[in-house]
């Protein structure tokens, strides 16, 4: 009994230390997951805690369950609209990108560690996938507001590339241990089983989860337990059926999160808190499992592989995979840099140990060091790099809180809260419609009603009941500013125009050059024509001396266009270390070829001039001799 209490005491101490040391992360900007990993290392057998933990099967089991919970929440919080924006590039990165990264890191491991080719590729597969938890936490919890397409690409890639990495790791381990006894069709069959089974179990399981929550009458506190149990059931069942449990649980979360669920907001809060717990438990446990005393002898080869992964393999994979898509140089560079490795790589590094491979501990230590370096170098620099590449966009302020109400019958209402901004329309005297009048107002810590407050003012916290369909309209009254701040103005333009205005009307109004072919198009149609129906907020079009900016989207349709009267001078390209896009590389090669041809032409012209000059001198000498001989005669 005393031993059990001691275990519980140690576990809760580690949990509380991890939570409170996260305050340090927010103060100094350190990657939060690195803090959790550091707590585990400090408490381990080589740290000040001296806790000995070497149970790799238990670590793999706990880590797998924690990762399944994290992936379910990742899918639950991902909108289908993100897939419409970024599905093709993200899924290309999650499959082809993982293969390219595996090959390049495997080549580097073969050179740096002198491992056989299969073992080298195994190490490449272990560290080939980005960590969903690391990316989601840094982009969402870190508050980095990026353009939708860039953010969606990163989040979808990190959520869907784990199955490919897991498949490669398991396949290579089986190849190493099988000694060539397997059929050549084994790997394609395993791939189809893992990916196809994962998608199938995820779709069916997600549909059943939605059905269970919406159709079965339970106590409200049991619905989060049902969603968690169903998620883990889907994960385990897909794994038993030789499908990818991680892909299945992510797809199930995606289906459930994009469906109308009873108590959806409470479910989101529950899974958000559970994801935090899973993240802390997984990283602290993996820190306990590590043996830092073995790290110094492997530091140099691990550092060399980390440099290859961060600066060579990942950028090349991103460059090749994003070549067919319309990403700018800055966006390509940022996506290449946000390739954080995390718990997934360390978890996969346990697989060779479980299978009894001779170099199993080597894989674990190398992967652990690479993850540490990735979190240190990339995790610490994501926000500064996003600012440096000018990819940060102004946040569009919405409700600070939303609570779904369980009302009898078919009534569908929410309680939403807004903090009034300084330049909100309601502050400037905009009259509120009846359906938008607050039920409760908190000003200076005191509760008031709309009947006792003559005018709303900046800083007021207002609560009101509304239907979910009206939240976007409330955003315009309470959340978004009419008078844009300077940073906002630079991004969204000086003036707001309706997207149904024709190009001809705009050209006539501001004296702009007009293309006859585009004259009858509306601004919305002009953007769709230019961006191939993939318009998103922040997209820009140059029109004479002004710039048109996609400013407001509703239901996938462009509604408001910003007009920048004095647009910033266009950049010739991103600052190094930018990755040139194929079209830019082609231009560079063509320019280089033109310069080479020009230099060759100049050289040929100089040679011809020198030849003509020598010929002229010879002719002059010959004429002089002829004249001299004629004079002598």
UniProtKB/TrEMBL annotation:
GO terms for biological process: proton transmembrane transport. Residues 488-567 form the Transporter-associated domain. The keyword Transport applies. Keywords: Antiport, Cell membrane, Ion transport, Membrane, Transmembrane, Transmembrane helix, Transport. It is a multi-pass membrane protein. GO terms for molecular function: antiporter activity. Residues 623-633 have a biased composition (Basic and acidic residues). It holds the Pfam family Na_H_Exchanger. Residues 611-633 are annotated as: Disordered. Its main location: membrane. Coiled coil: none annotated. It is found in: Cell membrane. One of its GO terms (cellular component) is plasma membrane. The keyword Repeat does not apply. InterPro entries: Cation/H_exchanger_TM, Na+/solute_symporter_sf, Transptr-assoc_dom. The chain crosses the membrane at residues 6-26, 58-76, 88-109, 121-139, 189-213, 273-293, 299-322, 334-356, 362-382. NCBIfam families: PRK05326.1-1 (NF003714), PRK05326.1-2 (NF003715), PRK05326.1-3 (NF003716). This is K+/H+ antiporter.
């Amino acid at each position: 009994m005393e031993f059990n209490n001691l275990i519980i005491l140690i576990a809760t101490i580690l949990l509380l230390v991890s939570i409170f040391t996260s305050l340090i992360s927010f103060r100094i900007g350190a990657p939060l997951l690195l803090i959790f990993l550091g707590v585990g290392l400090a408490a381990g057998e080589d740290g000040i805690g001296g806790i000995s933990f070497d149970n790799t099967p238990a670590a793999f089991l706990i880590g797998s369950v924690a990762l399944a919970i994290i992936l379910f929440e990742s899918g639950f919080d991902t909108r289908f609209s993100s897939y419409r924006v970024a599905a093709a590039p993200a899924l290309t990165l999650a499959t082809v990108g993982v293969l390219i990264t595996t090959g390049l890191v495997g080549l580097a491991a073969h050179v740096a560690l002198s491992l056989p080719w299969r073992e080298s590729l195994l190490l490449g597969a272990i560290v080939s996938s980005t960590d969903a938890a690391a990316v989601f936490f840094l982009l969402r919890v870190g508050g980095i507001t990026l353009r939708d397409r860039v953010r969606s690409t990163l989040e979808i890639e990190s959520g869907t590339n784990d199955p490919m990495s897991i498949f490669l790791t398991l396949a290579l381990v089986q190849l190493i241990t099988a000694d060539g006894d397997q059929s050549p069709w084994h790997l394609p069959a395993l791939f189809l089983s893992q990916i196809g089974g994962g998608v199938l179990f995820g779709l069916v399981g997600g549909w059943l989860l939605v059905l269970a929550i919406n159709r079965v009458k339970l106590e409200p506190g049991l619905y989060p337990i049902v969603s968690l149990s169903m998620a883990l059931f889907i994960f385990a069942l897909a794994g038993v059926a030789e499908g990818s449990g991680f892909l299945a649980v992510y797809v199930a979360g995606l289906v459930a999160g994009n469906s109308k669920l009873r108590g959806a907001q409470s479910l989101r809060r529950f899974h958000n808190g559970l994801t935090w717990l899973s993240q802390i438990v997984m990283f602290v446990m993996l820190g306990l499992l590590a043996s830092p005393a073995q790290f110094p002898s492997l530091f140099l080869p691990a550092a060399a592989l980390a440099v290859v992964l961060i600066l060579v393999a990942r950028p090349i994979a991103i460059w090749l995979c994003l070549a067919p898509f319309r990403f700018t140089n800055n966006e390509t560079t940022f996506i290449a840099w946000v390739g954080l490795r995390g718990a997934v790589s360390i978890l996969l590094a346990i697989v060779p140990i479980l299978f009894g491979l001779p170099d199993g501990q080597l894989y674990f230590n190398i992967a652990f060091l690479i993850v540490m370096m990735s979190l240190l170098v990339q995790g610490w620099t994501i926000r500064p790099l996003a600012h440096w590449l000018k990819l940060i966009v102004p946040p569009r302020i919405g409700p600070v809180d939303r609570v779904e109400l369980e009302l009898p019958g078919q009534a569908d209402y929410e309680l939403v809260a807004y903090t009034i901004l300084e330049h909100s329309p309601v502050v400037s005297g905009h009259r509120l419609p009846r359906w938008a009048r607050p039920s409760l107002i908190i000003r200076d810590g005191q509760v008031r009603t709309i009947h006792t407050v003559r005018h709303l003012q900046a800083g007021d916290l207002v609560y009101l009941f509304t239907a979910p369909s009206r939240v976007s309209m409330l955003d315009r009254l309470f959340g978004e500013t009419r008078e844009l701040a300077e940073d906002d103005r630079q991004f969204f333009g000086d003036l707001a125009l309706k997207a149904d205005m024709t190009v001809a009307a705009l050209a006539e109004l501001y004296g702009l050059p007009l293309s006859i072919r585009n004259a009858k198009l509306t601004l919305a149609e002009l953007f769709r024509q230019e961006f191939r129906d993939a318009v998103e907020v922040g997209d820009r079009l140059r029109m004479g001396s002004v710039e048109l900016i996609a400013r407001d989207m509703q239901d996938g349709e462009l509604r408001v266009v910003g007009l920048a009267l004095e647009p910033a001078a266009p950049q010739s390209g991103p600052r190094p270390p930018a990755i040139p896009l194929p079209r830019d590389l082609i231009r560079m090669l063509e320019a280089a070829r033109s310069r080479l041809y020009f230099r060759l032409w100049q050289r040929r012209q100089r040679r011809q001039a020198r030849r003509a000059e020598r010929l002229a001198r010879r002719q002059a000498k010959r004429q002089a001799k002829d004249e001299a001989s004629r004079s002598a005669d």
